[in-house]
Specification:
Elements (H helix, E strand, L loop, with lengths): L39 H18 L1
Length: 58
C-alpha cells in the first residue's frame, strides 16, 4: 500500500500470513476471544526499536 502511494523509504512491521477467520466466542466455554494476544503490540515495538538501533549504529 505504501509503495502505491509513493512512500518507499519507511520501515514497517507486517506479517505475510493469511488471517484466520475471526471468532468472537469460544465454542466450548462461551467466553469472548480477544482480538489479539496481549504481548503482540509490545513485541512489534521491540522489533522496530531494534531496527532503529541498527540504523543508528551504521
Amino acid at each position: 500500500e505504501l509503495k502505491k502511494r509513493g512512500i518507499e523509504h519507511l520501515k514497517v512491521v507486517y506479517s505475510e500470513e493469511e488471517p484466520l477467520p475471526a471468532k468472537t466466542v469460544d465454542e466450548e466455554t462461551g467466553k469472548p476471544i480477544p482480538a489479539s494476544v496481549a504481548f503482540v503490540p509490545s513485541v512489534v515495538g521491540l522489533i522496530l526499536a531494534g531496527e532503529v538501533i541498527k540504523d543508528l549504529i551504521k
